[in-house]
């Protein structure tokens, strides 16, 4: 494997280590965008980016803990969608999830025609 650099005084192993660390940072931000729903950073300072990542990470962990304690069997993505739709509702989370999952599992109860149902 060949790494190109314009810093000739750095050893090849150091360049390789830097590349590995850069790759880990890229994977971390990819995971953040996929799981924490951060599409853009609102600030440009280091403190603003760190604050936004910490808030999103705390939200992710709280939702994961709630999902586990309630014993909900849907994906975390589905659980987040249910919470987003019912954000200002006053129903308990467990009943909201049960109703939403029932609608997902019983698609024939929806008043919509099926394309291949003659």
From TrEMBL:
Domain of life, source organism: Bacteria
Pfam families hit by this protein: DDE_Tnp_1
Upper classification of the organism: Bacteria, Pseudomonadati, Thermodesulfobacteriota, Desulfuromonadia, Desulfuromonadales
InterPro entries cross-referenced by the UniProt entry: RNaseH-like_sf, Transposase_11
Name of the protein in question: Transposase
Residue stretches making up the Transposase IS4-like domain: 3-62
An MF annotation (GO) of this entry: DNA binding
Biological processes, Gene Ontology terms: DNA transposition
